[in-house]
Amino acid sequence: MSVLLPNVPAMYEMQFGVPMSGAVLNNINTRLDARTVAVLLRHSGSKLVFVDPSSLQFINDALRLLPPKHPAPRVILVEDPHEDFFPAAPADTLTYERLLDKGDPEFVWVEPASEWDPMVLNYTSGTTSEPKGVVHCHRGIFLVTVDTLVEWAVPKQPTYLWTLPMFHANGWCFPWGMAAVGGTNVCLRRVDAAEVYATIARRGVDHLCGAPVVLNMLANAPDAARRP
Known about the structure:
This protein is α/β, with parallel strands linked by helices. It has helices at residues 9-20, 34-44, 56-64, 96-101, 138-152, 169-172, 174-180, 193-203, 212-219, and strands spanning 2-4, 26-27, 48-51, 74-77, 118-123, 133-137, 159-161, 184-186, 207-208. The strands form three sheets. Strands 2-1-3-4 form a four-stranded parallel β-sheet, with no helix packed on it. It has a three-stranded parallel β-sheet with strand order 8-7-9, with helices on both faces. It is globular.
């Protein structure tokens, strides 16, 4: 299953729900172009792709670039109730929430037969030629998750702000790490210095991650954007 979403709550849920359904999770970088996404969908063989309303035209362009005989994945719209900008989906559209409503509340999640079974499929970006697929097993994800918690000395029940895209190496495994330590996840659809500072102050955030460009943006934010 492929996922093309910003850091919204559904994106966090996908990091758990897809593997627990017995499928392999493929997070797609929302900054790629349609041709590259078409390559990823073809190579991964995804049967479903969960898409944010802002990326609907983008994913349709990618699907049109698939080889003629390649079966296109079914598109599932992930509505965002916190955004008024997007129109409501038609009643006959299968959305993420409607799909969950159809689920079996007694479903027992699918455990891996082996710790070496694949859990996520990620792709490189910004490299030469076509992106390279990287498969991570359950054991590998577990080890990286524990290592990041220990190395960073993450305390119990932190309040974590998602300034790091979850499509980027599965958010450095912090979706699972935050669950392990009982953390509170504060999601951000877009990274903006003023919004980040305001959210830290409003939500009592004590942890966040980000690439150097994000940290530089926060360090060099104008005084008007900052909070004590």
